[in-house]
Amino acid sequence: MSSSLIPQKPQDVMVIRNVTPSTAIMSVPFSRFGRIKIGGRGTVVKMTSGSLAVFSPVALTDAAKAKVDEMGGDVRYLVALDIEHHIFLSQWAKAFPNAKLVGPEGLAEKRAKQQASDDKIGSEQIHVTFTRENKRQLRIGDDFDADFEYEYVDGHANRELVFLHRPDATLIQADLLFNLPPREQYSRVPEADAKPGVADGMFQCMQSVEGDAKWVRRFNWYMAAKDRDSFNQSVGRIAGWEFTRIIPCHGDVVERDAKGIFDKAFKWHLEAK
């Protein structure tokens, strides 16, 4: 059940702020397996057209809805960034029925299996599904494509969708790159609840981009990449994009030396591609 992973009262702990005039983030506590604190984050982008694209949506609280309304309120795209980041798709789809749902292959099937045991998961159609075979030809929408580059990292265990918002030079992604610890995402949580345990500390060391990031490299190389050749090709394509900021779902936003950090974290893959 997703209820064991997410905060019971998200309105009390959600942090909402703009990282640029056209991009807002919604950061919340989130525990992997209900035990390891990694944080969660949704991203809302106002496109050049004036419509909104929402990536990895989190709980649609009153404050989240107010931010969406402030940005114009016309949600046209709801994007599940991988097969894990979809818990609140149904809530947003009901609130914005004209939105097109986007996700990777396997997402619809996974959601269908979870419906019986999780009341947050609905039966909404995934309108745009990325597959290994169609990822170079698939298009999401004219207004969306005017602002975004995207890559389906089918070689990743979680089937990652990665987006570059060209106007803001911002990379938006879920599990391709963490930036732990999740300081902002736990900044409104009582100090005792935010304190990392032993498991938190170990995983945060493995998913920190500080220093030489050797544990991040090892995790990506040995655990995340289920098809290393395809993974290498995808990472190489993303590395060719121009971005100055990385918005991860887990951990703090990377505001400085984003390209350098990306290249450092994926050094082995970039050298092997």
TrEMBL record:
InterPro entries: DUF4336 (IPR025638), RibonucZ/Hydroxyglut_hydro (IPR036866)
SUPFAM superfamilies with a match to the protein in the record: Metallo-hydrolase/oxidoreductase
Domain of life: Eukaryota
Protein name per UniProt: Metallo-beta-lactamase domain-containing protein
Species for this entry: Ophiocordyceps australis
